[in-house]
Here is the input.
Amino acid sequence: MAQRKPRALVAGNWKMNGLKGSRKELAALSRLLERASGKPACEIMICPPATLLMAFREAAKGTGIKIGAQDCHVSESGAHTGDLSAVMMKDAGAKAIIVGHSERRADHGESNNLVRAKAEAAHAAGLVAIICLGETIEERNDNATLRVVGSQLKNSLPDAVTAANTVIAYEPVWAIGTGLTPTADDVKKVHAHIRKRLAAEVGDEVASRVRILYGGSVKPSNAVELMAVENVDGALVGGASLQAADFFGIISAYL
Ligand code: 13P
Here is the structure.
């Protein structure tokens, strides 16, 4: 496979957390980054709830921290009460949108087809689609992890994938918010499988440059080990991204 060196991405998924006052965490993160002795060798992103996008866009100006959104409707506009489109997220300051998170797949019954349509909507708006994949504990216990993740990837992936417009996030469902993580060896196997399946879909060259993030109970204490795993190009962080000090601790794996 071609030489690959994608720039790592550490993205914080705030989920349904954060009110107006949370802007101070962004300011605190920016101060920690400023004071750091080196410049992190990764891109840094925070995906707050949609209500904070505009405020965060303003607060992040000049800090190098990018802002992303958490989900979108497949259409650009229309009669969809309560929904938000990718174009709207972009207008509010988002550079990327997380789609297919297991909480969306579980809480809202989102299928691979819908996830693919959402990723296409993100691309059409000129945004990066961060497409999430991951097996449940039952699937893991059945030794079905590679099959499940491979099938989610194949069926959630839009046609026009480039290394610039798509990021894959492997998030085992059983590792999210539980404090449990797969072993480094398990992560290595799944990420290698994702890279291989990606190459079958989009060709070696693009596949070698698409970033594959690991997510699920990433903390400052395990970030160095997880981020060092082959084919891990960064992290998608939930709980530990809410506090600037913890998030910075994870980013420090790239300092
Ligand atoms: P935690 O880091 O809280 O386990 O959440 C991971 C996640 O779901 C990020 O999208």
